[in-house]
Amino acid sequence: MYQAALDNLKKRNGQNLARSTKEGVHTTGKMIFKMATRKKFFKDDPTKFAYIKKEQEVIVERNKEELALF
Questions:
Q1: What pTM did the predictor assign?
Q2: Which run of H or E residues covers position 30?
């Protein structure tokens, strides 16, 4: 569920959050769950294998005529 929450960060309000923002959220989550594990609220840390997925880059080809205008 934690990984799904991280994946859903990019869909927030139709905007794509910056990678550094997602990493900040993940770092904060790791600190919270580490403390919860230490206090025996959880047996295992759910952030242990979670990661921020890389975004696929989209390359758009332009017409040579359009490039000449620049």
A1: 0.70
A2: helix 19-38
